[in-house]
Amino acid sequence: MKAPRQSDVARLAGVSQSAVSRVVSGDIDRIPAETQERIRAAVKELGYVPNAAARNLRNKRNRLLGVHTFEAVFPHAREDFYFEFLLGIEERAEEIGYDLVLFTSTGTSDGRRRIYRNGTNRLNLADGTVLLGAATDREELARLWHDGYLFVHIGRREVADAEIPCIIPDYVSAADRLVTSLAERGHQHFAYLHSGIDQEAYADRRAGYRAAIERLGLHDRSPGFRGEPELTEEWLDELASGPETAVVAETVGLAEQLRTGLAVRGLSIPADLSVAVLEGPGNEAGHRWDCLVVPRKEIGRIAIDALVARVENPDEEPVSRLVACELVAGETVAAPPQSKE
Q: How many whole angstroms separate alpha carbon 252 and alpha carbon 54?
């Protein structure tokens, strides 16, 4: 009968092989007690006997990196927000001699992709994995971290009792810089269009915007600044007649909605109201919005470098990294109209 291997222990315990390797070698500093007990129970049940080769498992890598998206990105990836991330991931992995595996068998009937199926972590096929997607399962992130699996996440994710290593677009600084640039053009009265999206990336945008408004002594009486989403007809009337000269919108959709509402009232952008957007312009034809752009390809490359650093030094504490966003000039910002100065 074939002797059990560390991979068998990992499968039975529902953890990564790196976690098994750490426990059997006595390196348990970052392994939760509950995970240790599961591993020891699996070792006992299988009759696994550690040996020198097993203890060095972490040094036996297959140079295979995983990519897991929490929602499907194909067949529309080319038009999708994630396409350039994937380009950067592929490009950098090829440059440094790693192969990639895209995990797709993790899909479920509701369209979501799960990491753990029947207690087994499918990502164990790879040395480590880049995770991305808006529909992140925080419970699975926490379990991955506690199991000792090596990964990095594109985008900031806050998870209780876990330090998720992330590559983070710096929306806070970008929003601050955008407001500062508007103030330097003479704008003092602002309005904020809030999308209602409850994600860290949007919380960061709001934090950066608020910090700049308060630091520069600017004025914002908008519902969005108070955390109220959507753009109502009542607030459109207020914008048409009030002191506001600059609007910052979280999404292009909100900016387009504003443009349409102003046109009905005989007003235009930027002649009557300057508008900047806290996301990229997308592929849709229309206004060339002044906006921020996430360097998605660069972030994909950085994610691979960060993951490989973790794979090669698994005992080092994971570190998150901020990546600056670019402010791109369009056709929607001008000096305040003289009628409102």
A: 53
Say how far apart CA 328 and CA 291 lie, in whole Å: 5
Radius of gyration of the chain (CA): 24
CB 106 within 8 A of CB 115: yes
- Domains annotated for the chain, with CATH where assigned, are 6-58 (1.10.260.40), 62-169+297-325 (3.40.50.2300), 171-293+328-340 (3.40.50.2300)
List the pLDDT tens digit at each of the 341 positions of the chain.
556 777 788 888 998 877 887 787 667 777 888 888 898 888 888 877 664 433 444 456 788 999 998 876 655 544 567 889 999 999 999 999 999 998 876 555 566 677 887 777 888 889 999 999 887 888 888 888 888 889 999 999 999 888 899 999 999 999 999 999 999 999 999 999 999 999 999 999 999 999 999 999 999 999 999 999 989 999 999 999 999 999 999 999 999 999 999 999 999 999 999 999 999 886 554 669 999 999 999 999 999 999 999 988 887 778 899 999 999 999 999 999 987 76
How far, in Å, CA of 66 to CA of 88, rounded? 14
The structure tokens 């390809």 sit at 297
Q: Report the predicted TM-score, pTM, of the whole model to 2 decimal places.
A: 0.80
Q: Can you state the angle between helices 17-24 and 6-13, rounded to 10 degrees?
A: 110
Rounded Cα distance between 224 and 194, Å, is: 5
